[in-house]
Each structure stands twice: as C-alpha cells, then as structure tokens.
Amino acid sequence: MASSPHQHISPEAVETVAGLTAGLASTIIVHPLDIIKTRMQLDTSAHPLRNSTQSVLRDILQNEGPTRIAALYRGLTPNLLGNSLGWALYFLWYKQGQDLVRYTRGYSLDQQLTSIDYIAASAGAGGLSALLTNPIWVIKTRMISTSSAIEGAYPSMISGMTSIWRTEGFRGFFHGLLPALFGVSHGALYFFAYENIKVWQRARNGEQKLSNTDTIIASALSKVFAGTTTYPTQVIRSRLQRYDPGVKVISKGPGIVALTRDLWRNEGILGFYKGLGPNLARVVPSTCVTFLVYENTKWMLPRLLNESRAELKSTL
Question: Domain of life here (predicted)?
C-alpha cells in the first residue's frame, strides 16, 4: 500500500515547525516598526501627533545606538525568541484545540468547524501562549522602549532577566499579563475572520490549496479587523511593562483600572490608539509573511521529508 506523504511526520510537528519558521521570518522583517509602535504607545502627552512615526524614527536614527542598524534592531533577540516561540506554540495548540473540539462535539474528520469552534480553539491556544511568553515580552518592551545609550538600560536579554529577578522578583516577569490575556481576543477574532475568509475563497475557487495571493488577502483583511478592534489592550500592556532606567528602586506602578482611567482622562479615546498606524504597517505585512511561510511550510514539509526518505531508500 502506498504511504501517505503525512505518514512519517505528525501534524503537531508540522504545525510547530511551520509556526517557528514563520515567526522568525516575519519578526526580522518588521522589527524596526515594532520599536516605533512601542515608543508611541508609551508617549503620555495629550497630543498624539506630537510623537509621529516620522519624529520617532528620526530621533532613533539620530540619537541612539552605535550604528543606525543597531538602533533599529535593539531588542531583536527577545522579539525573535518571543515571536518564534509564541507562533510555534500557538499553531501547535491551535491545531490540538481544533482536534479537541472535533472530538468533544463528535465531528467527522471532514466536517467544517463553526465560527465558535475556531474562536474557542484560538482563545485556548492564545491564552497558553501568552502565559508562557509574557516574561520575554516584558524584557522586549523594556529594551525597545529605551535607548541603549541611557544609563541603566538593559544591554542584552540576559542582563534584563537578571535585573528583573534581582529588583522585582518572579512577579516582575508577569507585568501586563492580564491585558495580554484580554488580548487573546485578538487571536480569536483574527482566526475567526481568517478561517471564514479561507472557506469563502475555497468555495469561490473550487480548490482546496489556496494560492499565495489568497493567503495574503485573507491574512491582511483578518489582521486589520482584529488589530483595530483589540489595539487598546496593547497600549495598556506596554504601559504596565514600561521601565525607567534612571529609577534605582522599582516601585509598584498603577493597576489596570487606574492606568485605564488616567489614560482616558488625560489623553482621551485617541490615547488608546497611539501607535496604531505603525502597528498596522508592522503587523499586516508581518502577518502576511507569517501565514505565507506557515501555509507553504505546512504544505511542503511532509512532502520534502517523504521525498528525502524515498531517495534514501532507493540508494540502499
């Protein structure tokens, strides 16, 4: 009997490798926009246009880092680790979440999941991923929000971990976890839109394998929808994770309720959307790259491994 191309590698391994590869590729491409977005989120002035994308970028290029490239890629290590690990875990648990939904609800293997099913699988995967990667995001936020030239700024990810453990203890690694868990709704909304757009595209095209153009359209539309809807949770999380290198004694900052109230009172509704422009400019192409790499890796990996085994057997 002929062997299936998926016989020698588990679906979970395919999802994990595809997610890991996708996270690495997308993070490297758009990291500078992540720095700009975070700097704008942490701006507490009542004038959201004062720190525009152009002014933040100009300040980074003129005043930070030993070189412009170093300035634009400060904090890349935790960003790479967080995104690659986060995507790998997310896709792994998202696939397992769908399998669990199928088993729990008694679906057949070829039965289409409902929108609620996709939301449940995505929310579960997102919650677990957010919990495990939150320490990495705390360090990343603190590194990309401060110039390496400032005294007390973290020079590396390891030094950041050491400093947090020494000055804030275990709890210091989980600043901003609650809004990050609220932000899980972002992934749920994204996959709700993404999976439904893919179903519509397959029905329109009459093909199971979508083209790269279809993947780009589905991922871009889904990201704009989910990113705009849930963006305020990112602003709140960044402010909870902020770090002032000049402060020698770390004191407990305001809680979520107080921070949200002050943000609304002092900066208005626009304060919750600071950095949205560079964020969409960052996450939309990033997501398109992520899902292009993910979908193509997921499709190609079992076939490449199967071909390699077939060639090996033919030489024996």
Answer: Eukaryota
Burial grade of 85 (CB within 10 A; 0-12, 13-18, 19 or more): middle
Q: What is the DSSP letter of 3?
A: P
- pLDDT of residue 188 exceeding 90, the answer is no
What is the DSSP code string of 200-252? Answer: HHHHHHT-SS--HHHHHHHHHHHHHHHHHHHHHHHHHHHHHT---TT-SS---
User: Confidence band (pLDDT; 50, 70, 90) for 91?
Assistant: confident
Q: How confident is the model at residue 272 (pLDDT cuts 50, 70, 90)?
A: very high
pLDDT for position 7: 47
Task: Report all structural domains of the chain as residue ranges with CATH numbers, in order of start.
Answer: 11-307 (1.50.40.10)
The candidate with the shortest Cα–Cα distance to 16, out of 97, 102, 128, 95, is 95
Tokens of residue 205, six digits: 């095209």
Q: What is the pTM of this model?
A: 0.69
Q: How far is CA 70 from CA 27, 85, 127, 148, 184, in A?
A: 15, 23, 33, 9, 31
If you search the block for the tokens 């979508």, which residue do you land on? 210
Average pLDDT over residues 19-25: 74
Q: Who contacts 171 (Cβ-Cβ below 8 Å, separation ≥6)?
A: none
For residue 158, pLDDT beyond 90: yes
Amino acid at 275: G
**Contact (CB, 8 A) for 223 and 276:** no
SS3 105: helix
Q: Identify the pLDDT of residue 4.
A: 43
Residues 140 and 79 sit within 8 Å (Cβ to Cβ): yes
* 92: number of Cβ within 10 Å: 23
Q: What is the pLDDT of residue 222?
A: 92
Q: Would you say how long the chain is, in residues?
A: 316
The pLDDT of residue 246 is above 70: no
Alpha-carbon distances, residue 305 vs 279, 286, 301, 312 (angstroms):
37, 27, 6, 11
DSSP 114: P
Residue 42 identity (one-letter amino acid) = L
Residue 163 amino acid letter? S
